[in-house]
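Can you please make up a whole protein chain along with its backbone structure tokens because I've never seen that pairing?
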Amino acid sequence: MMRYFPNGEGSYDVLLKNTSYLRNIKYLTARATLSPGNLDYIKVFDHLYSMGFVDIPISPARNLLKSDTDIKLEYMHFQKYVDYFCKCVKNNEIDKAQKMTDIYLAFRKLQMTGVRKRGCGAFRNSVAINIDGKIYPCHRFVGIEKFCTGSITGNYKLKAKSTTENSKCKSCWIKNLCLGGCAYENFMSTANINEPSDEFCNHMHYMYHKLLELYIEIKMRI
């Protein structure tokens, strides 16, 4: 429905056929993007898991979630997905749990010590270069002039993103885990790269609360 050829023909069957070899030798990741009408994390994950993908990160296209109904529905399915991960771990379905890439990596952070200040490479050590040679902090910021950091033919100055300066993150107990969210999504929702939306915070608080409970339960068994 969302990924089709210029003639209107769907791409699903073609991709299914052309990825069969890499899927069979366990050499391919599927990055799923959820959109209105297709917000069921578990349904999407189980389908891709059955196809043999190695890792299955899932993320909603938040810019497409316009109505309150879609926003609430996505959050409900996200909660169920987190619970599903916890259930898989408790049932010793480790292979399945590890392929829920985003939640699994979040779970692993609970055992890793140290202070984290930034998440991805944006505003840290990554760049994206537009066709005109202008440089941006990541591919999602390309074309937004206020975030242009220079040019390949001129000077380049790295802009920084902090997760501790804004009032929302400063006293939050999970700031060392969620790292203040995606800079681009923050900007689109709050007009501030350092300040996440309430929706993002709700997602992270629910997930880490559940994961911390799971972590403690596992530790107490050892």
Remarks:
- The first helix runs from residue 12 to 18.
- The chain has a mean pLDDT of 91.
- The chain is about 45% helix and 5% strand.
- The radius of gyration is 19 Å.
